[in-house]
């Protein structure tokens, strides 16, 4: 099994396309670093400005409450006031940056890692049929199940590789620009998050949680792409179907937050960071529940992908 996984990794990393995709991550990092380096320094009178902003927001909140504005708007203002007051009380400027905060901001580019993972996973099986090399794989004295698992392992290792590259490079670039201080500093988002308690997580803890939950999301999306790749025999179709399903699934999850049945929908459960930075989208949902739902969908995807891969007629 180890030789099969090694072989799949060699085939993956020997292709120029793989390194072009990884190069996109590096280019994205360079642009983020250029933008961050141009950010203005912290103003010496930032405390006075923030105090004035808190007063204005408090007055606006009172006005909104008097005229019965939308509860969501009032709650957002309350969170913003709480966030700004926490910054003031703990001497944390709104616009300062450290290597850890730079790395946290760069997690916004994890969507690029998702696209890269979809391209790789959606092609790794179907390309064997398109090139005609699937017969060379199947004449080996190994079962189709082992080949299936080896390819899936290569996909997961690639997703881990890209994610680690993003984390390490963003920390190194951020450290070169801003230094490595501030790891234990309380994490405060740029925008208030619903029911988040300021200071409940350190910057380091939040960064670790962000990447762990991103890895799980990559695992889910890669599994969907791998299923389509095994079932369709077409790289273009497998990649396209995965992107459509993922985009539509995310939109559906966010467009029906008040429907309790949506808690069983896959993409309502994939944003696990919501359990640490905010609140679950539907009351009653827990981290354990979301992990169980994700596991069930992954098993279904594997059942479909494995069935197609092991039963397909190669001569067709």
UniProtKB/TrEMBL annotation:
Tree of life domain: Bacteria
Alphabetic keyword roster: Membrane, Transmembrane, Transmembrane helix
One of the Pfam families matching this protein, by short name: ABC2_membrane_4
Residues annotated as transmembrane: 20-37, 110-131, 152-181, 208-228, 235-253, 287-309
Keyword Transmembrane helix: yes
Protein name according to UniProt: ABC transporter permease
Species of the source: Tumebacillus flagellatus
Lineage, broadest ranks: Bacteria, Bacillati, Bacillota, Bacilli, Bacillales
